[in-house]
Amino acid sequence: MNRREHRQRYQNGGFVLITSVFALVLMVTFTQVGLMRSMNVLRGSNFSTASAGAFQMAEAGLEQGLLEFRQKIYNLEDPATSTPCPTWSNNLDLGNPQDDARYCIEATGAAEKWEQDSKTGLFTRVTDYRIRARATVASQNITRQVAMTVQRHLTPVFQYEAFYNGDLEIAPGQDMTIAGRVFTNSNLYVLPNSEITFDSKSIDAVGDFFVSRKNGPQETVSHDISISSDGGNSFTDVPDSPENSSFLLDSRSASWKSMADSLWGVRSKPRRMV
Fold first, then answer.
1. How far apart are CA 188 and CA 200, in angstroms?
2. Residue 34 falls inside a structural domain
3. What percent of the chain has pLDDT over 70?
4. Per residue in 241-251, pLDDT tens?
């Protein structure tokens, strides 16, 4: 082998070595880039999961605050939490001491207002409250806050002539006219021994309307039960039941809802008020 051929082989071997090293560096670089991208995707996935979890915990705080709001309204208490909202004193037990979710209830500061129902004419005092909730996922240092506005409606009961929490039974012995509003949180029973007239803008029962005594059977009524259909200008007697003409129409009839709506404009049942 002469010196020229030896030099050529040496140069070719050096070129192969450089190419191999370059390819190895390129492969390592691509591997690192792939690992970095995978780590970034994993971090992003963990962040998104923690963010969604924080939001769901905050929503749970809102639900708990709404439950407390309703309970306080039911008990005729001020629904606002005893400690101002920025302190976030009401803590939820999430089972993980590292995570934290709190809520508070506060008055919005808006002026109270009176609203009048177009159908019944009732006045209701309306107060705005705000329920706020905050949740933190400690592992990702993520905090989310949510809020909702709710209203407290207070309707003074002195606007009613008859207001009862349980079953209300009206069975007068002499002719009787009820000139004010009637409301019961349960069922209304009417079985007069003489004529009875409801000269009222509203007769509301959260339960049902029965022409009978309470817990008694359906009975034949020989006296009229007149109900105002427009707040005192005209009256319509309770008609016979289409299923049995011996009895008057009441909630036991399959036609009660449609017939009552056409006669007196009865709409959906009222909400419970106490």
1. 15
2. no
3. 73
4. 888 888 888 88
- Give me the domain span that covers residue 125: 40-155
For 205-253, what is each residue's pLDDT tens digit?
Answer: 889 999 888 887 777 887 888 888 766 567 888 888 888 888 888 888 8
Instruction: Tell me, yes or no, whether 80 lies in a domain.
Output: yes
Same domain for 208 and 110: no
- H-run or E-run covering 11: helix 3-74
| Lookup result for tokens 């007069």 | 192
Number of domains in the chain: 2
* Contact between residue 259 and residue 248 where contact means Cβ atoms under 8 Å apart: no
Tokens of 244: 């049995």
According to DSSP, the residues that pair with 70 across neighbouring strands are none
Asked if 150 and 187 touch (Cβ cutoff 8 Å), the reply is no
Please give the torsion angle defined by the CA atoms of residues 158, 160, 165 and 168, in that order, rounded to the nearest 10 degrees: 140
Report how far Cα 232 is from the mean position of its chain's Cα atoms: 36
Question: What is the overall mean pLDDT for the chain?
Answer: 79
